[in-house]
Amino acid sequence: MNRTHLVHVASIILIALAVAMAATTVVSALFGAEDTLAFMASTLITALAGWLGYRRSSLERDLTIREGYAVVSMSWIAIGVAGALPYLLSGAIRSPVSALFESVSGFTTTGATVFTQIETLPHGILFWRALTQWIGGMGIIVLGIAVLPFLGVGGMQLFRAEVPGPTPERLAPRIAQTAKLLWYVYAGLTAAQTVLYLLGGMSFFDAITHAFTTLSTGGFSVRNASLAAYDSRYIQYVTIIFMYLAGVNFTLHYRALTGKPARYLTDAEWRAYSLVLLTATALILPPILASGQYSELGVERAFRDALFQAVSIGTTTGYVNYDYELWPASTNLILLLLMFIGGMAGSTAGGMKVIRVYAFARQGLTALKRSLHPRAVMITRIGRKPIRDTDLLTILAFILLYLALFFFGALALTLLGNDFVTSIGASAASVGNIGPGLGEVGAIDHYGWMGPVSKLVLVFLMLVGRLEIFTVLLLFHPDLWRRTR
After folding, report:
1. What is the pLDDT of residue 485?
2. Using a CB cutoff of 8 Å and minimum separation of 24, what contacts does 260-268 make?
């Protein structure tokens, strides 16, 4: 491990983050918000830290695989700390731990918040919360590879360590070009959603911030009641569509936009992803209709709420348009299962990813058949593609580690004095980067009441979940830190 390489790349990322803070400073100034000076100070501190680190380090060769993992993890920790500065300097959050929690929740697109009154916050803070999610959705490392040519050195190692999913797909021979193409699609969909929101009557500020937090599957809203504040079928259906699109592999979007829309239908993971969300909606709808809660609201509203929450939780966005904890217990169990499954690999969604769950299920069926026909040669396939045994073992290891982290988080939170249901909900929501959970951190609740140690546990889970477990856990492996030339 060459530590100067780690410092060099992390410093460049901090400089890029300072540019985002400067943009937020402009927004704050345009609205005459009282947090403008706080953003100016945060920009200067972050830029200075990045410049000093850059000047005192160098990048002399390609990054190794070990350096790639370390750089991504340490860069995300650095931006989490730097991103907390505006909250602290503006006085919006007094506690450093709570500010770190809000910052990491934003960048990891978790969407858990410590704020109790969102609408009283200054415009600069509201925009910063949304922007951190938009940056974190596609990934700040991927952004760096796309716009900073000198990060093209060792870019594949960074790309592999950050992009969600088992095997990131190249769209172009050069990894920097792939990163640019992904960001073009991401930005294009964000712009399209903003326009549709404007047509639905949203203000420009509300439209752009909600587009930021929808395409990133982040879920931060500028309203206390989240999307329920907009009592509009049009706005809620637009949100459903774009949450769904955000949970799809962005390489499929690129293929479709370049003349190959049939790639959706031929992709086995896309079919499984769509089936999971439709099935969840179909399972949620009858119990909530039978509960009598929609006797006056009507069947369409019940269908819309069921579909909205299934897509919101299934894509790990975390928006709310109804307090789902008022629904029958069976529906909450379905939503809990969706938290674990998540969206497609290569999307901005969290969770274990549909491709892993699908491959695990297919392998289970193969094992059952092999029990009946022990001499038969059976190959597990996804679509027409066979899965290698090494890939299956990696998927199995990931799922086991994911569940172990969930149980660790739930146990730690319980030992820290949180009730059982809240501990389970908060742990699942954090490692899956969802935001709202169950119990005291449910659909209309917040995390501000939790103790500092509980918040630090959740910060760890959010980072591990966003970086697909292995990237962060490798920091604790001694071999990662062996010195190299």
Report:
1. 52
2. 266/383, 267/383, 268/358, 268/382, 268/383
